[in-house]
Amino acid sequence: MIRLVCTREIDNITDNIIRHLPLHRFRSANMLEEEIIFPKGFDLDNYLSSGELDYLYDKSIDLHLKFSYKAGLHLTETPFSKNQKIKIIEGQSITLKANAPYTEALKRWILGFGDQVKIIGPPKLKRELQEIYKNSLNN
Asked: Residues 43-65: pLDDT tens digits?
């Protein structure tokens, strides 16, 4: 589920309360001419890493993936998470270990790497993605 992190203005009064609204409920959006006002001291990265949205996910998993070197290189510049541990075998592979929310977005992210990533664990995730690949070949 994609969510919009925002504040709201009702009757020309901005409440400065951080909210996260499900994007699929929006019918339309318009660009404003006015300057955007951020609540004092607000930092989106800190807000997201605080776990404020974690309640949306049933549980987290101990993710263990092995990428081809080229496919995994981005993890050194743009980390997957703050708790990630990566092991680099120069020119061969990059292994990622991290605790992550078990979400559809995570599964889609992994599937996007195709055969450039091997799912080492957890076994449930590996089975689910194997089934997705299997079904995609049979349809």
From this structure: 888 877 766 665 555 678 999 99
CA distance 32 to 114: 40
Residues 3, 21: Cα–Cα separation, whole Å: 5
Give start and end residues of each alpha helix (H) in 13-89.
Answer: 44-49, 69-72, 74-77
Domain 58-138: give its CATH code.
Answer: 3.30.70
Residue 84 Ramachandran class (φ > 0 left, ψ -120 to 50 alpha, else beta):
beta
What's the rounded Cα separation, in Å, for the pair 59 and 132?
Answer: 21
Using one digit for the tens of pLDDT, what is the confidence trace for 101-117? 887 778 888 999 999 99
Task: Give residue limits of the domains in the chain.
Answer: 3-49, 58-138
d(CA 99, CA 82): 9
Residue type, 35: E
Contact call for residues 100 and 106 (beta carbons, < 8 A) = yes
Q: Is 103 exposed, middle or buried (0-12, 13-18, 19+ CB in 10 A)?
A: middle
